[in-house]
Every structure is written in C-alpha cells, then in structure tokens.
Amino acid sequence: MPDKSTPLPEKLAPANTSIGSTRRAGVDHYENFPVASLLCPPHLRPAIAAIYWFARTADDLADEGDARPQTRLDDLAAYRADLMATATATGLAPSPCWAPVFERLGPVIAQFALPVHLLADLLSAFEQDVVKQRYASEVELLDYCRRSANPVGRLLLHLYGVGDAASLQQSDDICTALQLINFWQDLSVDIPRGRIYLPADAWARHGVDEAQLLALDSQPSTINLIADCARSAKARMLKGAQLVKKVPGRGGWELRLVVQGGLRILDKIEALGFNTLQQRPKLGAWDVVVMGWRALWM
What we know:
The chain starts with 44 loop residues before the first helix and ends with a helix. The chain is an all-alpha fold. It has 13 helices and no strands. The chain has one domain (42-296): Farnesyl Diphosphate Synthase (Orthogonal Bundle). It is 61% helix and 0% strand.
C-alpha cells in the first residue's frame, strides 16, 4: 500500500515504502507511500496520487522555503479551508491557490467516501511542525505520530476495503513504527535543523541533556538512548506486521516490503552501533534483495 512517494530504490523505508508518514526529512523529498508503485492496483493509483499530492503540498507549506512561521500557519489554515470546501456540500468552492490539488482530491473523496478527518489530522501535524521542535515525553511524540503517520495507513486501508478495529490498530503500529524509525534514522539531519524528536523523558532516563544532542555527541549515554528508541520501534513494527495477511492482492505484497524496509533500516542503525548522531544509514540494491526475500517468508 507508504508519505511522500515513488518506486523503491535507495531510500526504500521508511523512505519510499507504502504505509507511513507524510513527513519529509532533510531537504530532499522522500516518501512513505509510493504514488505509482508497480504493486499498487491500477484502479487505486489515481486515488493514492491525489492523497499524496494533498499531503506533499501541505508538507511543503509547513517546511519549504524561508517563510515566517505565521505565514506558514496562515497558508495551512487556508489550505484546510479549501479541504473543507472540497469535502462538504456547503456550496463554497476552494480557492484557486491549490486548484490542481483539490480538483484531483475532490472526486476521490466522493468516489471512495474518504474519511476527511484523517486528511485534517495530517494538516494538524504539519501545523505542529511549524511551532514545535521538542517533545517532552513519548506520549507527546506518539500523539504526533497519530496525526502525521497513522492517517496515511488508515486512508490506504480504506481504499483497500479493510476497516476492522484490529487491522486499524495494526496499521497504526506499522505507521507509527515507520515514523519513529524515520526519526532515529535522521538524527544527524534533523538535530542540526533544530528538531529533536528524541523525547526529553527518555533523555532523563539515560542521563543525556539537550546540549549533548545539539552537539551530536556520541557518548555511551546517547548511544544507549538511541538503541532503546530503535528497539522500541522494532517491537512496535513486529506487533503490527500481521496486517500483511489481511490486505488483499498486490497491496499485501507491497505492505510486506514496507514492513521489511522499516526493519532493514533498523538493521542498518544497529550495524552503525546506533550512532545515527554521526551518520545516516541508507538502503542499497542488496538491501532490496534482502527485503524481497524476507517478504516472501512473512
């Protein structure tokens, strides 16, 4: 089924996978759901592309360029108003600012009865990105994931006609795990940009302070902090992995690659000694082979 999209190469997961967040790391656009994956059923590709462009555009409003925070928030508020105008029978037309986005999204909302509150949740996460760069607790961070990552999985499950409570929870586990793996993969990129996703309550348990993180200081305490976070993300991913057996056809195979992509990034993080303060792990061609083999045996 993964944020911002394409096929499966170097940054496979939680880059170009198929359930996941719509967050962008660093300055390059990489994705957690492929717009035109070969494994995606052709009849769903236009719908997935429309959701992608909606999320991609909102993410750019929150994160691209040099606009002031208030300007970003104003633009996201206008974008939200256009979403509501597109999704409801109020007689109000969306503004011309993002017409191509909503011209594609409107028919998809109508055809598939998309849960619009999930699209609104994504906007709420992007708005939060504008104003919040620190997380006091894991609870706060998981709430962010609930809005930045989990809606993508739930929207894709909706397109596949899977909606039972157990499947939705498993999707949330996979999406949240992908988002967290993305964070722990990108510490060397995010922290210099001023964003620390490692929660402060976890720092305290390991005797780490903010100055150490801002300095990208690789000490046993910071390494142990990252290791604990990575292991927690792995446990969450494995908890949701049974969902692959419930998604029909090609979507189930794509989801297998999503799960294995996230787990493979965790392998890479562990191979670096959990020192992602200094180096960002990447996936290569051999990793894709490993992921495919593991997906066959899920």
